[in-house]
Amino acid sequence: MRWSTLLIPTLKEDPAEAEAVSHKLMVRSGLVRQLAAGLYCYLPLGQRVLEKIHAIIREEMNRIGGQELILPVLHPAELWQQTGRWAEIGEEMFRLKDRGKRDMCLGMTHEEIIAWLAAKEIRSYRELPQIWYQIQVKFRDEARPKSGVLRTREFLMKDSYSLDADEEGLQQSYELHKEAYGRIFGRCGLNFYVVESDPGMMGGAGSHEFMAPSPAGEDEVARCKSCGHAANVEMAASRPTPPTFPSWSSLEEVPTPGARSIEEVSRFLQIDPRLTLKTLMVITGEGPLLCLLRGDHQLHERKVQRLVGPYRPAHRDEVKEVAGVEAGFLGPLNLELPLVIDEVLAEGVYVAGANREGYHLRGVVPGKHFSARYADIHQVRPGDGCVKCDGVIAVERVIEVGNIFKLGTRYSTPLKAVYLDEKGQEHPIVMGSYGIGPARIAAAAIEQNHDGEGTIWPESIAPFQVHLLLVNVKDQKMRGLGEELYRALMAAGLEVLYDDRDERPGVKFKDADLLGIPYRVTVGNRAIREGQVEIRRRRTKEDSLVPVAETVPRVQALFSRTRGG
Ligand code: ATP
Ligand code: MG
């Protein structure tokens, strides 16, 4: 296509509010424009990238037997009420009323609609399994839409759903998706990890996330440097290095005047902070609860929430009122309060608050001096030990590009999506759901592939394959050569962006680097004088001079050489 006729509004300056590299580059290279917070227009180049990604997704989904369909974005509230999510989900859901005053919502995801469809259309075990997918708009009123297209309020998602007769079937559909997702992200040129994750609002029995490492990500993955085992920090377990325990053989109350924080107490008693117990009071739906952690650890909100439901930290005066002591001297002994203790503390002897102003207890042995429910409630930290091997954990920022869920019968039961088995007995359909964000793939690809000049598109998802740059449109001879090459490259089936604009060469070269199309073919003075064009690989900036007549086969060869890589 000819640049002179296209809408490719490149910019010299970064947009003021942008922080993420992908945000800056997508705006500067004219791929997108922001309409309002979390709402983006995809301009022609951006749309081409999305279409490339969609094509890869479709190929891989079709390969595992997926069938494409399309479902409405506007949903009647009843379906969401029947599964309970109408009430469960808060402000993230866009809700509205139709002219008949009926409650409606804009789909954040489509489990309810799929289960409704399955309830209508699936009768017998003979019709299972099924995989249904769509590439369709989702709406989520995100609290903090930011980082360009990484987190928007309206976005396209490829969402697929598996329907199976039993758990074994689900396991197979899940594995098929896991493999397909690996191929999709690999083909899109992403570096990614597959990690264990928290199913969150989807519910169900297990899930994995596909994470592209990038500082622009909003998630963190804990990953073992030795065995590669990885989990979202929301889920990740670890074995923190234990301290050397002293031989405190009896329980002793020691004065710690003015020492309240872990730091103050360990300094005052001249002990390793890892020998202290941190006692935190939180308020759950059932009332006050004490959470015990090793002194140097932080409470992990999501882990606690999974255990006890929604909660909040107690205020200072609540602690005083309930325990009769200031928070700084709060401890686990002699209080009639439910306790959760981090499993790291199953071993050892510690110093804890004495529930008496100005005092701590030395020689506290969990399990002996008090009993509590053990659970993993600490945040994983870099340097902790891996739970699967002897390795050490690193924590890395990542972008979630895909997420797969084993839903089980969470949706089929309330929506009565059932089938009859060989004996005519009724069972709920066992479901899985699987999401990918094409815009996040595009942005993650930029985050992982760029330099100071601009994007370096992976060949598979670049908006064009070849950037044909005509140095001087006013030079008749040069122009003639350019036109000839343009036609020849197109005839060879290559996707060509032909920069035929009447612009200074410097501007054109800068724009070419910014856009990041894998190969640039320059038709300049040398083409006239010596009959040679310059082919430049954007990634390495390697140049090679090629006789005009050999341009097409040379470019074709470059593609076949690197295809799949
Ligand atoms: P996040 O935790 O980042 O909010 P999520 O876990 O809520 O995402 P899912 O429900 O798992 O998202 O959606 C599946 C996929 O859709 C995600 O892996 C991501 O690629 C994409 N996606 C989700 N939310 C957004 C968004 N607000 N903007 C762009 N893409 C999104
Ligand atoms: Mg997710």
Report what the structure shows.
It is globular and about 95 Å long. Helix 2 runs antiparallel to helix 6 and helix 2 crosses helix 10. The protein is α+β, with helices and mostly antiparallel strands. It has 14 helices and 31 strands. Strands 3, 7, 8, 9, 10, 11, 12, 21 and 24 form a 9-stranded mixed sheet that branches. A 5-stranded mixed sheet has the order 16-14-15-17-20. The mean pLDDT is 95. The protein has 3 domains: 277 residues, Bira Bifunctional Protein, Domain 2 (BirA Bifunctional Protein, domain 2, 2-Layer Sandwich); 124 residues, YbaK protein; 98 residues, Rossmann fold (3-Layer(aba) Sandwich), CATH 3.40.50. The site of adenosine-5'-triphosphate has 16 residues, from strand 8, strand 21, strand 24 and helix 10. Adenosine-5'-triphosphate (ATP) binds next to strand 8, strand 21, strand 24 and helix 10.
Features:
single chain; 565 residues; alpha+beta; BirA Bifunctional Protein, domain 2; YbaK protein; Rossmann fold; nine-stranded mixed beta sheet; five-stranded mixed beta sheet; 31 strands; 27% helix; binds adenosine-5'-triphosphate; binds magnesium ion
CATH fold naming of the largest domain: BirA Bifunctional Protein, domain 2
Class from secondary-structure proportions: alpha+beta
What is the total tally of β strands? 31
Percent helix among the residues?
25-40%
Termini gap: 26 Å
Sum this structure up briefly:
This protein has 565 residues and is an alpha+beta fold. 27% of the residues lie in helices and 28% in strands.
